[in-house]
Amino acid sequence: MAGPRAVLEAWQDPSAAPLVEIRNVTKTFGNFYAVDDLSLTIYPKEFFSLLGASGCGKTTLLRMLAGFERPDSGRLLIGGEEVTHLPPYQRPVNMMFQSYALFPHLSVADNIAFGLRQEGLPRQEINQRVAEMLELVRLSDYAKRKPDQLSGGQRQRVALARSLAKHPKLLLLDEPLGALDRKLREHTQFELVNIQERLGITFIMVTHDQEEAMTMSTRMAVMNEGRIRQLGTPGEIYEHPNNRFVAGFIGAVNQFEGRVIAQNEKQLQIHCEITDSNLVVHCEHEITLGTPIAIAIRPEKITISTVASETIEKSENQLTGCVEEIAYLGDVSIYHVRVAPELLVEAQLTNSARRHTAPLTWGDQAWLRWKAEDGIALLE
Amino acid sequence: MKQRSTLVFSCMAFGYAFLYAPILSLIIFSFNESRLVTVWGGFSTKWYGALLENDQLLGAAWISLRIAFINACFAVLLGTLAAVALVRFGRFRGRKLLAFMVGAPLVMPEVILGLASLLLFVSMDQLLGWPEGRGMTTIAIAHITFSTAYVAVVVQSRLGRLDPSLEEAAMDLGARPLKVFFVITLPLIAPALTAGWLLAFTLSLDDLVIASFTSGPGASTLPMVVYSSVRLGVSPEINALATLLVLIVSVGIIIAGMLIQQKKPT
């Protein structure tokens, strides 16, 4: 985690005024709970991500903020004002659609001007605002083109410009980078964050791509089955997942199921059935003996070597097994080590030195070690 | 390879000959010098000239064109409304029934449609006093009933392919639903509307059965006049007129087909 901050972030400051308040909102489609009694508060100038697999309710939540769906119960407030039952055209919110939804019969400039014309602004102001927006997304030379004469990346930028033209308080983005290829996506991620910081508009983005959410967001919510499973900064969620679902959903993780057999000071001793070994993990809370618990450990926090350590400290774990798979990714190598008949452990080794032959190869016996404080104790 | 292409070619030639030989012979004989329809007497365009002086035929043509025009306009209006209801308002009670019923006139025998319309008009005349007698109005109304079905089918397929987020985006940017319909939806389905209009126009122009049931004194459409004069012997003037009709109808159908098949803009 980052060190202590000089200034409180908005979500840590009790006196900050929230921009978006979602209060106990539920939305069902037939018997299916798309959003289930969900509450969430988002502050001005945040870049907030809703992350989850398809069907987790993130898009429904976004569409309720835009006004395309009405919640069955609960309230939505934007800037302190109730918008629960306002139609989309009366909300101070704009949305960027996954399909971009550019009007095919209008030119780029007319697409961007569409929202401004609905406000009845004078022509001169509209032209000026459109020019500004075109400059912002670097498409000034394309004003007269039709959407079908643009590349995918250019269309994405027109969609962004159109949704920003009215200077909304809040911009909703539905998988904004989903249709772009990988290289363009990485570039566009930074561009989106830059634009967001420059304009100071609050962004709420829906995505299923955890890397995207981690790179771009100030805070994010991991959703599953219509509920928020964890809310926090990308760092908090990666390093301190508070349940098995989030630990498994964000990044790669090894999980060891077991029961608490001892606790001294801030260290739990756990007996893991599947490896038939005792493991230690750092934990701040008092846990009753016998409680089922999981230890999650990220692959990059495991050290892998060919020899057993002579002296294992009390706060260290060691397991051994046979190397089954090696994936060489250039900067890192990933090893799959079978520590028990039904358990493969993933460990990551940074290739910090240039060499052609790996220190370990298929079939070798490997020793895996990690510190108690690098593991995460998961009760839920 | 060569063998197959000859085979394919002769199949195609035979098929098209079967379809178009009658029409082609009609067009050729419309330029016949001789008064005898089946005997070639040299090339001439005199029957086109004679046609222009035939008031009965031209009057009927004028009636037909007016009916076709009114029919096409109303059919587009009603058909579009039905299509919008079917595609845009999601699932409502009776949606399936309505969808089926919109298409039913497409497969209903014309004789039944014509007879049913006649019965309705007669009883309405007796009960309500409208439509008074039978004539252009009743033919037009009867045509509108079946043309609407064609328009609804064409517009429905176009609307169904439209990305619903286009309308949502317009609303999101501050346009009210009615404005969204006129500024976004309507321009995007315009090709289907034009296609539907042309289709309705040509369907009405060459309908004989329904028109015969629902017409009254002084309101004979062109197909009716052609049919009755053919019974007294084919005049070469009819050939000339038929050639012109073929021309109008095929232009209409070709344009309609091009508009229906036009690639969906995204």
Précis, in short:
The complex is a heterodimer of chains A (380) and B (266). With 380 residues, chain A is an alpha+beta fold. Chain A has eight helices and 20 strands.
Q: Which characteristics define this entry?
A:
heterodimer, A: 380 residues, alpha+beta, Rossmann fold, OB fold (Dihydrolipoamide Acetyltransferase, E2P), five-stranded antiparallel β-sheet, 8 helices, 20 strands, B: 266 residues, mainly alpha
Give an overview in words:
The complex is a heterodimer of chains A (380) and B (266). Chain A folds into two domains: 10-245, 3-Layer(aba) Sandwich (Rossmann fold), CATH 3.40.50; 252-378, RNA polymerase II/Efflux pump adaptor protein, barrel-sandwich hybrid domain (OB fold (Dihydrolipoamide Acetyltransferase, E2P), Beta Barrel). Chain A has eight helices and 20 strands. Chain A has helices at 58-66, 108-119, 123-136, 152-164, 182-199, 210-216, 234-239, 244-249; strands spanning 20-29, 32-42, 47-51, 73-78, 81-82, 93-96, 170-174, 202-207, 219-224, 227-232, 254-264, 267-272, 277-282, 292-297, 303-305, 316-328, 332-340, 343-350, 365-371, 376-378. Chain A is elongated, with a radius of gyration of 25 Å. Chain A has 380 residues and is an alpha+beta fold. In chain A, helix 2 packs across helix 3 (123-136). The model of chain A is unreliable at 1-6 (pLDDT under 50). In chain A, strand 17 (332-340) and strand 18 form a beta hairpin. Chain B has eleven helices and no strands. Chain B is 78% helix and 0% strand. Chain B has a single domain (56-261), classed as MetI-like fold, CATH 1.10.3720.10. Chain B has 266 residues and is an all-alpha fold. At the A-B interface, strand 6 and helix 2 of A face helix 7 and helix 8 of B.
